[in-house]
Write the structure tokens for this entry.
Amino acid sequence: MKTITGLMAAMLALGVSASAALADGAAPGQLPDPPKFDAQGKVTLVGVGDILTYGALPAYNEPDFVKALEKAGKLPALKDRLPKEPMIYKTGNMKDGIGVYGDVMRHVIGGRPEGWNYWAGQSQGWGGIDIGLQECLTRTGPLFQVKAEELQPLPNLAKSWDWSADGKQLTMHLIEGAKWSDGEPFSADDVMFYWEKNVLDTNVHPLNGANPGTFGEGTTLEKVDANTIKWTFKNAFPTQVLYAMAYGTFCPGPAHILAPQHPANSKNTYDQYKNAFPPSYMAMPTMGGWVVVDHKPDNIVVLRRNPYYWKVDEKGNQLPYLNELQYRLSTWADRDVQAVAGTGDFSNLEQAENYVESLKKSADAAAPARLEFGQRTIGYALQFNYSANGWGDTDDRSVGVHKLNRDLHFRKAVTSMLDRQRLGESLVKGPFTAIYPGGIYPGTSFYDKASTVYYPYNVEAAKAELAAAGLKDTDGDGILNFPKDVNGGKNVEITVLGNADYQSDKSLVEGIVAMGEKVGLKVIPKLLSGKDHDAARDAGKFDWSVLRQGSEVITAVQNTDHLAPIGPNTTDFHKAGADGKVDLMDFEQQLVDTVNKFIGAKEAKDRIELMKQFQKTATENVYTAGLTVYPGALIINKRFSNVAPGAPIFMYNWAEDNIIRERVYVAADKQQKYELFPDTLPGKPGSAPGEGLVK
Ligand code: GLA
Ligand code: CA
């Protein structure tokens, strides 16, 4: 409960408004508690060992059509395709138990595949395509159902690991005898190629931004033997790094296909390496449950089951149960519409503008899809381009704005000009959105309200802070001007980058433009689609960026390197200049130190303390200006079995990972004839779209 201080009471008595009294500048205020909103799905918490194990089973099984292909001599025997000890999912953790083969999950996405070189930074179109293709050393998506006491990443390609007595070495045992989807062996060499030629080679930028710093400065990795790798760290027991070995930062690629194209082994430039596997290149080898077999631009991407997949159920059925995944290339908003209507199967309902309509339609008992809201884990922040080192745009205006961004008065002005209540309501009315000041999301496990500094909406305070930052409307046109020596004293114009593919992103940008106008700032929207948006962010071509943030602000342990610029390229709004250095401000240096300590911290209590420090420094200094947080909902067609109740659309990872698609199935009496390439398996790497399939 709020208590009215003597000063406040006096102001009220005098009829002085709080905002007028604060005209001197922005002062922290009381952060209102988020409106009550109960997540619908109840998660059953389990231990890691309840979910999966590894072992050899007496016999294995596969779909009938694959058996037939095997019989026809078109495929090696199943036992020779599986590793010595496949991963085994435990029946007890599968909501509906052992499944049956068949059917398809029909996804709809707004992204487009740029190509298949994920390791050199190509987007495959998102929406879980990459999650179905790439497998990583560890796995975190399903951790939403793991008990706090047992919380650590699930084993995956690394089936076990041990720490040396001094905690500085981590030896990982890889699955033995597993194969890529083209039948070539998977080994430590694939891991080493990824590490040495893609992560350590800073000319290559893996898609989710893995770089040496991600695993702690000075970390090394070596091959011990074909199935064993060894990490060496500067700190003892940096158990956090296990999270950085999951999606999307440590998912090795097929070295036998990639290495020959890498500039180290060919005449290719780095750009040619990146583009060596264009969208028309089919059957890029994967360790995932499915392999891309067809792509019709702006129409569809089709994935068929991987006959070498290395995961089984307790009865020895090779996974996945679903024979096919389809990705219709449309828009993200269409994904919601189609999932609700039953013409698509899956959506992460995350654009709040669609909530009311989707809720109404799903409420009908006869609706084809079920819709389940989770916790408030979808959130946005306004990020400031902090470059003063030549990274990003270098014209006088941009340089002038970046300089403002580095001024705490200016950032306090920006955070105070934001009416977060209204921003939230502009997306959706009702108890969904909550005020988000910045830092770790409210309601998540590392969040600490007492360490959160919140500057409430206050136009007068914002104006005072702008004046303190040296901005004045010198020509009387209603827009503040730069000081005379900056950009010729012209009007301050600020570009705000937003992703044009999402209505929520566009609505927030619009709101910020309007709120800027009220304090004399001319904010110009820069709305770009998918790949162009990401490229602009990557290159620092923005002054402000409105971004739907990642799991770092939900779990802190996942994508931890995104919390502060701990490496030259870890933070998308403040990267290194030509000298390879990030020109950190003092408070950023504090954030970096705290985050590095957090990465190296072994004890839970130290981590909690460090995240409190992070929260304080980040919010007090308005490192980013938080905007809004709200819950997302998983929409999934009712014909699917084994979807865990309470699976969040986003926590450690997206729902496409969380629901463990390889063990999702459709009961025999509910199966549909949706397969576009029935009774076929992927062809050879480099096949043409829709051609060369094994049948
Ligand atoms: C996009 C979508 C998300 C999710 C992810 C998966 O970002 O907007 O809902 O599907 O892709 O990578
Ligand atoms: Ca002016």
